[in-house]
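Problem: given the chain below (138 residues), write out its structure.
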Amino acid sequence: MTAASPYTTRLAIPSIATYQHLRVAAGLSAKTTAAAARGLPNSLFAVQVLHGDEVVGMGRIIGDGGCFFQVVDIAVLPAHQGKGLGKLIMREIRQFIDRGVPESAYVSLIADGQAQDLYAQFGFKHTAPASVGMALKR
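Solution.
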């Protein structure tokens, strides 16, 4: 963001309450407090976007730290969407990837809807038909 932007970034894992709020408000699935408490500390990288003191966006990378990395939890509150915050989050994530992810690593994500257009700007490509994403929801 520019020097005059009302948004700043914080490279830190969000609190459980903030994480849960952002996911639901941005239209992602809800996560229980127990799941968030177990999962968040295992983040390899996390970025938050703040508007003043309010966290209005986030993104994380999870994985084993060497071979496999997954971009997850890209979320921006609806009132702040359309202002380039998804790009801001992805720029921070891409910088982390470029600085610290081994060349042989596999970095993946699941793109919902038109989010694929955002991710393509940062070098992510469709894997189909060679491979397709699959999930087991609990």
